[in-house]
Design a protein that fits this description.
Chain A is an all-alpha fold. Helix content of chain A is about 70%, strand content about 0%. Chain A has eight helices and no strands. In chain A, helix 1 runs antiparallel to helix 2 and helix 6 crosses helix 7. In chain B, helix 1 runs antiparallel to helix 2. Classes of the chains: A mainly alpha (about 190), B mainly alpha (about 130), C mainly alpha (about 150). Chains in contact: A-B, A-C, B-C.
């Protein structure tokens, strides 16, 4: 049953991802992206990652979509078709994907308890966290105590990203709107 | 389970390649950022799938539960999601500024040779447009 | 959107619960799924909902931009401060066990403080993103109007 839900969600995710690539209207793409995030949050919940599902639902479906929509109000709504053909890109992607799928057959079987990943440090966390900290949520304990220097780095990355956005968008816009070369080219062509 | 033992990883590769294709084949910068996000999410799914134990449970200690999924990938991905949205915001802010400076965010239109327009070079503006070109 | 009464009533009903839920996953994050990252984003989402319905200016009266800046830095500084406190009290950087006498209580105190720092930074940085993204269109239009005059 668990596996069935997992497979259904993965197929839905792939479908929505293809729709995101194919749709030319960027507002639709942003809304599809919200659906994609919500589906992946559901998938994380099925895969036993409660904390990750909560984060993905709040961040992916909430803040991220809002940022895309905010950026689209300033830029253009429609995506223009690219010149030239995309066959070369498709070829590169297919070859890379085939190599990766071939490599993925060497990965340990999904969901098996004796995979190498479950042997190294995870048993230590699971067995010792309650004696050492008295906290039942192992993820919170690992995040804030065992790997706290890692988390500190992440916090500073977020702060830096915030300062980067402020630096980029606090410059007042130019008074005179210069017509772009692209717009001029389009006018000439038409 | 034998045949489907790697199904998660296959879908991860498919999603990753869809994201990769979007980044290299689409010209619109916002679409490229969406492609990067698709790629990123596929990596999240890869990590979380690797940490899953079938029949296990969310790693919050409770009475009567023996098997917990691996908490370490959850920690890594939890922080990566929030950092991902922060970097997405920086990318979108850059796209907005590029649209203000050039009037387009399609990269092949940005590559068009810049023709100098006589009324486009007022002295007060030259410094700023120079820095925007650089 | 202020004139739409359905939106206004629903917003009135929802915002207190969103903020309460954010505080719950912030401070109950040790016992159930949750923590600073999620709580920060949910708290920011509550504020953004207010901004979407009542306008950015009204929302900036609740939490001004300057306060957002200061809190974003203070959250990260609180995290570093807890780390350095461990060094001052004779342990290592981000070593919580020296904060209090009982090792379990010390770890819990450390985790709660550190998660609070994370939550404050994530919430205010998300608000800053929204503030600057939402304001840009108005600024561009104003610049164009001034250029036309």
């Amino acid at each position: 049953m668990e596996t069935l839900v997992d497979i259904a969600l993965l197929v839905l995710l792939a479908t929505v991802a293809i729709a995101i690539v194919r749709v030319r209207d960027l507002y639709s793409a942003a809304m599809l992206f919200a659906i994609y995030s919500l589906l992946s949050a559901a998938l994380f919940a099925v895969l036993d990652a409660g904390d990750v599902a909560l984060t993905e639902a709040a961040v992916g479906a909430g803040i991220s979509t809002l940022l895309f929509l905010g950026a689209l109000t300033v830029t253009e709504r429609r995506e223009r078709p690219v010149r030239g053909n995309a066959w070369l890109a498709l070829l590169v992607v297919t070859v890379t994907g085939a190599c990766l799928i071939y490599a993925a057959t060497d990965l340990p079987t999904f969901g098996s308890a004796d995979n190498p990943i479950h042997q190294h440090v995870a048993p230590y966390y699971i067995n010792n966290v309650y004696d050492q900290m008295g906290i039942p949520n192992i993820v919170a304990a690992v995040l804030a105590s065992y790997r706290s220097i890692d988390t500190m780095g992440e916090v500073f990355v977020i702060l830096t990203a915030g300062l980067g956005v402020v630096a980029l968008l606090s410059v007042p816009p130019r008074r005179r709107r210069a017509r772009s070369t692209a717009e001029r080219g389009r006018e000439e062509r038409s | 389970m034998g045949l489907l033992g790697h199904f998660n990883f296959w879908v991860v590769v498919v999603l990753m390649m869809i994201g990769f294709y979007t980044v290299i084949a689409r010209g619109n910068m916002i679409k490229k950022i969406m492609g990067l996000n698709l790629f990123q999410t596929s990596v999240f799914i890869l990590f979380i799938s690797a940490g899953k134990i079938l029949g296990g449970s969310t790693p919050v200690l409770r009475e009567g539960i023996e098997i917990y999924s691996n908490p370490l990938p959850h920690v890594l991905i939890l922080t990566a999601i929030v950092v991902g949205v922060a970097t997405t915001a920086v990318g979108l802010a850059l796209a907005m500024r590029i649209h203000e400076a050039y009037g387009t965010i399609e990269d092949d239109e940005l590559l068009d040779p810049i023709e100098q327009d006589p009324d486009d070079t007022s002295p007060g503006d030259s410094g700023r447009s120079g820095s925007a070109d650089a | 959107m202020k004139s739409n009464s359905i939106l206004r009533v629903i917003t009135h009903l929802l915002i207190p619960f969103i903020l309460l839920f954010a505080l719950y996953i912030q401070f109950h994050g040790e016992y159930s799924p949750g923590g600073g990252f999620q709580a920060g984003v949910v708290f920011a989402a509550g504020w953004i909902l207010f901004a979407l319905v009542y306008g950015l200016d009204a929302a900036l009266l609740v939490i001004p931009e300057r306060v957002q800046f200061i809190l974003a830095c203070l959250g990260a500084l609180l995290y570093s401060f807890i780390g350095i406190l461990g060094v001052v009290l004779g342990g290592r950087f981000l070593d919580f066990s020296v904060l209090l006498d009982s090792p379990q209580a010390a770890q819990q105190a450390g985790i709660i403080l550190v998660e609070f720092g994370v939550g404050v930074t994530v919430a205010t940085v998300s608000m800053l993103f929204f503030t600057f993204f939402a304001r840009r269109k108005g600024q561009i239009e104003q610049a164009r109007r001034e250029a036309r005059d």
